[in-house]
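Possible regression after last week's pipeline update?

I re-ran a chain I had predicted before the update to compare outputs. Posting the input and the new output here so someone can diff against the archived version. Not blocking, just want to make sure nothing changed silently.
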Amino acid sequence: MMQRILGESIQGYTHIQRNLECQDRKLSRELEDGSLVLSVADGHGSRSCPYSGTGAELAVNTFCKLIEDLHSHFQNPEDLFDYLNRQGSLKFAQTVERAWKEDVQAYHLEAGLPMPMTQTGDEDLNALYRLYGTTLLGLLIAPTFVFAFQIGDGDITYADDGGVQPVVVADKLLGVESHSLCSREAWKKAVSTVHFPPWEQHLPCAFLLSTDGLSNSYADDEAFGQTCAQYFEALKTYGPDTVEENLPEWLSETSRLGCGDDTTLLMAYLAPDGWEPQAQKAEENEEE
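New output (post-update):
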């Protein structure tokens, strides 16, 4: 099976106008057995979260490292499946929150930044975490199952020739509010799910992780789903290289015409061995 990861994070149109840096981050890894790990995070970017871009960077690193550690610990894929299926929204979510907050403390101290203090002169760790507030989306595509994890807004979507569907459904709050890794007991707001591979009879297919800058640029969930389907069709027709080349322009245009927020789209495209883009096949047929 052919596997390809591609993606882009772009500075939102309104952020460009206000000279604000992009707060989105993304990270992906391919493990020894061919498993794919993808993660996307959206720093809140508000005045109360001045280091949220760093918070998002720490978040994607945390997710990928923890999944990689679990993958090494559970030599039997069935054991890893059982653990994530039973503990994805509990023990694993608690581990994600704890590890991220420890990384925030370590970064803040190493950077020599002033520590927020309570009125009684104690370190205010909750205030510290808010400075780095971020959401987190993560996906493990293993040979025998898929694990999806989410805290806060954003979307994890699956697409094939049969259509598109969410991989995991998170709580959506009104307005610009979102659940956050910086919250007390953030793990309680985590949602996760485990699926068996849907691609055995449905290749090619794609998984798309996106921050809310993408979905919020469309009128409703149906329009967003149509856009995910169009990205999948572009992958099939033109191939991952062409899509990746054009992705910055496409996402920038979406942000300009849409909500104006930072936007990240990270995709895993899976196809049969020997697969070629439809456009390339057409050219080869014309030459013959």
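Follow-up from reviewer: compared with the archived run. The chain has nine helices and ten strands. Marking as no regression found.
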